[in-house]
Design a protein that fits this description.
The chain has 526 residues and is α+β, with helices and mostly antiparallel strands. The protein is built from 17 helices and 26 strands. Helix 9 crosses helix 10. The longest helix is centred in the middle third of the chain and has 15 residues.
Length: 526
Amino acid sequence: MPRGDGRLSHELDPERPGPQDACGVFGVWAPGEEVAKLTYFGLYALQHRGQEAAGIAVSDGSGVVVYKDLGLVAQVFDEPTLASLRGHLAIGHARYSTTGGSTWENAQPTIRANTAGTTIALAHNGNLVNTAELAKESAARGMDSDGSTSDTALVTALLASRPDLSVEAAALEVLPMLRGAFSFVFMDESTLYAARDPHGVRPLVLGRMERGWVVASETAALDIVGASVVREVEPGELIAIDEHGLRSARFAVPEPKGCLFEYVYIARPDTTIAGRNVYSTRVAIGRKLAMEHPVEADLVIPVPESGTPAAIGYAEASGITYGAGLMKNPYVGRTFIQPSQTLRQLGIRLKLNPLRENVRGKRVVVVDDSIVRGNTQRAIVRMLREAGALEVHVRISSPPVNWPCFYGIDFATRAELLANGLDNEGIRRSIGADSLGYVSLAGLVAATEQPKTRLCRACFDGEYPIELPAGNLIGKHVLEGVGRRVADQAPEPAEQRYDGGSDGADVDRATPLVTSPGARDALQRP
């Protein structure tokens, strides 16, 4: 089985990545079902949210097994592995790292056993902003780092540091301590839990199966496993599901601030957020773009795939013909062989190629979802001109990205954001377009059909709904030391076995799994 190298698979310019997705989480409680396979398919539906690592935790009631590794879901898991992960509840995670580097130790779900013999596995979508504070609290409680440098591992350790409490009671103590964005799925030997931060920044939905319950980052993941949508997990809510059914508790007063960029780029088009279909939202954004930035042209084309719905909306509202102008190679994903400097200069031609017959001699409107550094748009404009386009007008279905995100999306640094240093005309000249238009923030918000006050817009307007820590105690590598570089190559996968709830781990070089005391023989080595 090929090992993952931690590179993302969807970037047009791998040397200059754009906004990177938040993670995807999935959980299922369904006695009698093949929960590991359900989780696999759920993660497959959420692969767009994270491509660095994948993992699944399962329990049969006597012990918890976590199998995880770097790579895509289909690279980490195969049929024999999934068949050996037996139980009645499971959680899964597809990771893009927002705190902690892309290493095996930071892959999720994280796992921790407390001194009472209960094992906790946890998967996290989002990013906490008081990580340094939580690290001090964890150390004060005598919990070591367990080799991880992620905020997720800290939360798992804090839950395990309360052995005198049930996991549910421990969660009600720990969750109010967390600041930032989090949509959690976690579990012990018998119970599935789900929790969402008081602002509900990242999505999390609850679904019903014939013989169980499902929680997932997006409704599209419920669809793929045949679950019907019940509702969203509410901001500030903790849900527990076990043999006694589903119960809910509040750990904080809800102050909804859903991520606006989910509608623009992150979520799948077939997902519904806050009652609004994402595809319909993106088409509506395109219509707003056409009204706000009209132009005389012959053809509207998308940058596939994220620009397609907005391009359709732009064409509908403008009356300009919609068509294909750029073809994306669907089989160019993870690039294991590094190109030479000559090939690197070709940039996105590895993934996009113009349809010369369609664009030659035409005035073209090209619609994309966002501009971060401008490298992708610059290359596309150049390609279209070389293919014979008479004019190239760029339209962007989000406002200028001026501010970094600290809540689970990894943009470039502010110094690298093109819109931070240039005005609209400067950006237009930089990418070489004949004209450039961004949808307004008001237009984008209107397309979501959500009140502005219920949306986090920080990357566009700098208004952060969750207070950020003073100084430099924030960032992806806050637990790894300022300036420390994370190795590009992951270590050999290691097997860790928890012994009686101790904090230590016996490590040998074997399969990429972690087990609790009651599950020592649950997974046979391949």
